[in-house]
Specification:
Elements lengths: L1 H37 L5 H28 L26 H22 L6 H23 L4 H4 L8 H19 L20 H20 L8 H33 L4 H15 L8 H24 L8 H14 L10 H29 L6 H6 L1 H6 L10
Helix pairs in contact: 1-2, 1-3, 1-7, 2-3, 2-4, 3-4, 3-6, 4-6, 4-12, 6-11, 6-12, 7-8, 7-9, 8-9, 8-10, 9-10, 9-11, 10-11
Length: about 400
């Protein structure tokens, strides 16, 4: 009888892990729709191509080397991973199948790379982006992932990041920031006199659909990170995670709406969408420990932060078409720093240390890769190609052939 119960729990936890992974995989569609809506119509096919191919690259690279670097045969508390291949073998005392763990982890890698996609949209060479994807998903992300979720030195230092505000989201933003600096702004975005010229997206319904898909997928992102659901304690924890994830997103959307109304007298949909995502990113560091009211407050503050962060990056002339640096970078950092408000055993200093290490490593490693690519094949399309649009230049297929701006 005891063996039957153990097998049933193993099956249930494996199934929960797999379904959570499917929800996170669906976030790839969310990123694709959000980014396609926020770029101009002449660049839509190219950004859709980037999103589906980066997911494919992440799946292959994490299978071949990434998962092994992050989780297999590593020293506890160390900093240098073992650098092997494939996903290892099933542990005898595992609570779920090894393959389900790999699948859940690989969709997180793709999420980190998707963050880069939107920030460099409308002016980066497709093949430069895809080459970088190989390095981020196969090596850069797994190394910093080992330091945290793989039991490395950041875990030993007391750093805590439940589902990836820093490990996934801030890391993706760090890689994106290095590219944005090297790449430069889109043509016409900033005037010589310091003026900022908004470049509206082409499809707000798509951007809204993408945000709602991401919101839905986040329940797998955060809920699945509990890892287990087959007993009362874990099932109750998953319920709290779902509630906190949802309320943080809702509060972020409302906060961004109110800020945009007070600041510009308009209900800015793009800010509302980014406000919801900001709340989701911020709560991801610790969705399991705050009360729903505290989770609401975290989402509310993140929704305010993201609006002013987007404005600040524009003033710094760091062109980010989708607000990824603010949503995933700034609000990811905010989420990490408020963990001690609800989670025992964590400190502000420990969280700040972990955030600095993750950001610093990913930024520098990414800068090196981007710089090599820039020096060899280049990372930016020509002015003429940018004017014509990435769809015709890179893909030869227009998303909206009847009307392209």
């Amino acid at each position: 009888m005891e063996n039957t119960v153990i097998e049933l729990r193993f099956a249930l936890d494996t199934f929960y892990f797999l379904i959570s992974g499917v929800l996170v995989m669906w976030m790839a569609a969310g990123f694709a729709m959000l980014e396609a809506g926020l770029v101009r119509s002449k660049n839509t096919t190219e950004i859709l191509t980037k999103n589906i191919v980066l997911y494919a690259i992440a799946c292959i690279m994490f299978l071949l080397v990434g998962y092994n670097i992050m989780y297999v045969d590593n020293i506890a508390g160390g900093w240098l991973p073992s650098f092997g291949g494939l996903i290892g073998t099933q542990a005898a005392d595992a609570n779920h199948s090894l393959e389900s763990d790999f699948f859940f982890q690989v969709v997180f890698v793709a999420t980190a790379m998707s963050i880069v996609s939107g920030a460099v949209a409308e002016r980066m060479k497709l093949w430069a982006f895809l080459i970088f994807s190989v390095f981020l998903t196969g090596f850069i992300y797994p190394i910093e992932g080992y330091w945290t979720w793989g039991g490395g030195f950041l875990t030993e230092a007391g750093f805590s990041d439940f589902a990836g505000s820093g490990i996934v989201h801030m890391a993706g933003a760090a890689a994106a920031l290095s590219a944005v600096i090297l790449l430069g702004a889109r043509k016409g975005k900033y005037g010589k006199d310091g003026s900022i010229h908004p470049i509206p997206g082409s499809n707000m319904p798509l951007a809204t659909l993408g945000t709602l898909i991401l919101w839905m997928g986040w329940f797998g992102f955060n809920g699945g990170s509990q890892l287990l659901i087959s007993d009362a304690e874990n099932a109750t924890a998953v319920g709290l995670i779902f509630v906190n994830t949802n309320t943080a997103a809702a509060a972020g959307a409302i906060a961004a709406l109110l800020v945009s109304k007070l600041k510009w007298g308009k209900a800015d949909l793009t800010m509302v969408l980014n406000g919801a995502l900001a709340g989701l990113v911020a709560i991801t560091a610790a969705p399991d420990s705050p009360s729903p009211l505290l989770a609401t407050a975290i989402g509310l503050i993140a929704g305010i932060i993201v609006v002013y962060s987007i404005i600040t990056f524009d003033k710094l002339k760091l062109d980010d078409p989708v607000g990824a640096l603010s949503v995933h970078g700034v609000c990811g950092l905010f989420g990490l720093l408020v963990v001690p408000l609800s989670k025992e055993g964590t400190t502000f200093a420990g969280q700040l240390y972990g955030a600095a290490v993750i950001f610093g490593f990913v930024f520098v490693a990414s800068w090196i890769v981007w710089a090599v690519i820039k020096a060899t094949m280049g990372i930016r399309v020509t002015a003429e190609e940018e004017e014509t649009g990435m769809d015709l230049h890179d893909c030869g297929v227009e998303a909206y052939p009847e009307f392209t701006d």
